Amino acid sequence: MLGTLSRRLRVGTFHTVAQHLLPPALRHQHPDADLAISETRSAQGIDLVASGVLDVAIVACWGRELTLPPGLQAHQLLCDPIVLCLPDDHPVIRGQSEPRGLRLDQLDDQP
């Protein structure tokens, strides 16, 4: 991603990646890089890359397909499962005879 003429990389991502994963990973490979990391919401990151404001966006995508504008490509970096713990009497799981998987959209109206 870093060219020979420019050592600048503008990356947009969410907080966890921006703080914990990205800086050590890039500094290890390119210690002289001019790295600009911006915290963005995943939906914003795609638009910012498409408009040229960012060079790269690392986004989260759970349970839906990414919609990319022409000229952009997505590559999966990690698969990070989400674990949710709820009390037995929570409305979303009340009445289930045995535990089963939930979908994020089942929690849309939950605080």
TrEMBL record:
Transmembrane segments: none
Similarity-based family: Belongs to the LysR transcriptional regulatory family.
Domain LysR substrate-binding: 4-96
The entry's keywords: DNA-binding, Transcription, Transcription regulation
Entry-linked Pfam families: LysR_substrate
InterPro entries: LysR_subst-bd (IPR005119)
Gene source species: Streptomyces milbemycinicus
Official protein name in the record: LysR substrate-binding domain-containing protein
